[in-house]
Write the C-alpha cells for this entry.
Amino acid sequence: MMTRPCDMLPPVRGSLTMGAGLKDLVWFRAGGPAEILFRPADAEDLASFLAAKPDDLRVSVIGVGSNLLVRDGGIPGVVVRLSSAFGKVSTEGLRVRAGAAALDGAVARTAADAGIAGLEFLRGVPGTIGGALKMNAGCYGSEIKDVFVEAIAIDEKGNEIRLSSAEMDFTYRKAQGARDGLIFVEAVFEGRRDEPAAIRARMEELSANREASQPIKSKTGGSTFKNPPGHKAWQLVDQAGCRGLMIGAAQVSEKHTNFLINTGDATAADLEALGEEVRKRVFEKSGVTLEWEIKRVGIA
C-alpha cells in the first residue's frame, strides 16, 4: 500500500479517510482496507477532485460491493464511494433518471409507482446503478441495455461525459465503452406504460423466485461466473461435483452453485482460491473455461 497522506490531496467538501476498512462495505464481508476512501459531497466535488489530483494517483470506485471481491491486501490509492447525494431517482413520462448510487431495487420500485414497466428486472439485481451500467447487469431475460437511454460520467480529468447506448457498446455482462477511469454519476432509462399494480405483481414474483433459488441472506457476491455460450454456469459447476465444496470458510452454495458464500470468517484469498478451484474442476470435467463475473480488485 502507498503512504500518501490526505493533506497532499486536493481539498474536498466530502470526506477523505486514511486506511478505511472496506470489509463492512462489501457483501462478502471480507477483504482489506482502502488506502484512502473518498466520499464526494456531490458530482461537482468529485469532478473538482479528479481535475486537481496528482497524475500518478490511482483512483477506483466501489458501490455497495454486491458483485465485488476486495483482496486481503486492500486497494491502493483513492477509492471513491458515492454518497447518498448520488442516489436520487425521479421520473418524467416514461423515463427514469437515477443517480449512480441508487439501489437497483429502488429504481425498479420508483418506476413501478409511476406506471413505467420494463425495469422490473432491476428488483432482482443486487447493487447500484453505477455497477449495473458497468456490467450491463440483468436477470430473468432482461438487462440494462434494453432500457438504457443515456449515462453521465466524470472522467479522469474531471470532465463530464455523456454516453449514448452506441457509445456504451453493451455486450453480455459488460459495457465495453465504459473504459477504466470513468465514474458514472447518473443514468436515464426508458420503459413502457402499464398499470402500477401489474408491475408490482411481476416484481413480487421475481423477488420470490430469487429468494427461493439464491442464497441472498448469506454473505455472498452474487453470480460468480458468467454463463458461457450455450451453457449455464451453475449446471457446469454442479456437474463438476462442486456443490458444497469448501476452502477455509468459503463455500460453493448448496442452494445455487454459481454463488460463493462466506460461511463465517473466510478471507478474500479463501474465496478467490475456491473460485479458481471450481474453474479448474469445471474445465477438467467439461472443457469449458468459466469467466469470473465477480470483479476482483486490490492486492492479494
In short: The mean pLDDT is 96.
